[in-house]
Amino acid sequence: MYEKPPPFGSYYVTLSVSGWIDVFTCHSYCEILIDNLNHCIDNKNLHVYEYVLMPSYITIIASSKKKHISTILREFKNGTAKQVLKSIAENPDEKRKEWMMRLFSYYSNRYQHDAEHHFWQFGNHPVVLDSTELFAQHVTEVVNLPVTTRLVDDPHHYVYSSAHPHQRVKLAPWQ
């Protein structure tokens, strides 16, 4: 159980793909997202404490001392969307390409009107984690999400999670 005060300005955030489309079932799309997350850590002063990348969304516990986290997440979403959409369009092995691109176009026409495709749902709705109990509760939730959704039996077995021993996100220390 986490007993120290939570890291200053921590937020619990879920970023969801439009229409909850299961994009992150393909390793190459997951790697794009992980690379972009690390770019924000290295270049935009994002501190990620825990994360889990599920098939249609990513949930993180993060903070930033220089920029508001919503600004960083907006930039992250823009960059990731462009790269993942390009990768889907250019992937000769993507069997769901036409279906996914048609849906992303549909969401653009429905919600955005100024872009060809709309990848992420609008908004970040960060939840402030301003108490030790709230921080600990959300850490447990993030780490155990692959278990509660029955993807794995042990959180350490889920590759795209901060619980995995060989995960690639440059996590900030909080313990």
TrEMBL record:
GO terms for biological process: DNA transposition. Transmembrane segments: none annotated. It comes from Niastella populi. This is Transposase IS200-like domain-containing protein. InterPro entries: Transposase_17_sf (IPR036515). GO terms for molecular function: DNA binding; transposase activity.
